[in-house]
Amino acid sequence: MIAGPGLVAANAGNDAAGIATYASAGSQFTYGTLFFMVLVTVALVMVQEMAVRLGAYTGKGLGALIREQFSLRLTALAVACLMLANTGLVVSEFAGIGAAFGLLGVPKWAVIPPAAVLLWALVLFGSYRWAERIFLVFSLAFFAYPVAMVLGHPHWGTVGEHLLVPHVEANKSFILLAVALIGTTVSPYMQFYAAAGVVDRGSKPQDYKLIRADAIIGAVFACLISLTIIIATASAIGGTGPLESAAQAASALRPVAGRGAEVLFALGLLGASALAGAVVPLSASYAVGEAAGVERSVSRSFRDAPLFLGLFTAQIALGAIVALTPVDVIQLLIGTQVLQGLISPIVLVYLLVLTNRRSLLGAAANGPRYRVAATTVVVGVALMSTILLVQTVLGWVGLG
């Protein structure tokens, strides 16, 4: 079966935080970020392909390879970055579940605890293959957004122009959102999960063609969904400024469902949040388990993999508890993506160095052209993150 870790990992990037960020891009800059998203799509395809290639040809996840190929300090840095980014993200997934049901008039305290228990049980008492199938079912919720885009009657000429012609605004708001788009599309946890998922499902080098197809199709599909969210929102509420609530984002679907737009938005938000609510903590558990050199598999029992499943349990519990507090959902979601965008370059450097090493991958290592293209992607992401960081610091000292 082609559909696997690559599709799951890429779709998990279209989580509650991703939907909020893409919708905010449409409401704030209408179609202005579309060309940028085309570039991000190319970056995601390359990054996810490198991650699954590592898993297929080495039989090891990214965390294990970093531990073997780098110093203890650099391994600790990679794991610390992932845990820092994932902590806020897990909270945002459960906040997204609460927001989805909130659109239907159901209080979050009535849905977040049972949702946490269900996601926890899915991983703890199932095999990897079974969990992966459930994750793919969650992905069906994303088809709500292409429908919204088409029936929203966007100006297709303008859409086509912005997909092909670069558009940049030299202000902090645009750069902040651009970094958030990178963070939510090329999230660090996705590379850890994609590589670990390939290993956990028992894939071998001879399976690489199918694994590669899964990674590429998954990345392209996920980014197409992202583009439809931006276009749908831009068509409905473009130019109104940043989003302030999930209900405001739901109005982007009003051309499709009229007064029932909130229900359709809630469906997409719920499916996305549930998918990432399991994948995000799993990625951190894989990374820590690999770095520590202990058993890590969804198919193992708590007795066989106490650190792996214990860390997963702790993240689920923490995310659900914090999400029950009065948090500003939209600000939490977009802020988390900015943090992901700042951390992404660090993780991508590890990924690039590992896939460049012929001593590790042999003939499957990056070729000269691929190496140049991949380096360009990493430098580009790092440059965007650096610009945002500098602007933020200048703002703190009153110079921004």
UniProtKB/TrEMBL annotation:
- List, alphabetically, the InterPro entries matched: NRAMP_fam
**Membrane topology per record:** Multi-pass membrane protein
- Provide the protein's localization: Membrane
Tell me where it mainly resides: membrane
Keyword annotations for this protein, in alphabetical order, are: Membrane, Transmembrane, Transmembrane helix, Transport
**Which regions span the lipid bilayer?**
34-56, 77-103, 109-128, 135-154, 174-194, 215-237, 263-284, 305-324, 330-353, 374-399
Any one GO MF term held by the record is:
manganese ion transmembrane transporter activity
Q: Which GO terms describe its biological process?
A: iron ion transmembrane transport
Show the GO cellular component annotation of the record.
plasma membrane
Give the Pfam families listed for this entry. Nramp
Q: What is this protein called?
A: Mn transporter
Q: Which organism is it from?
A: Streptomyces tateyamensis
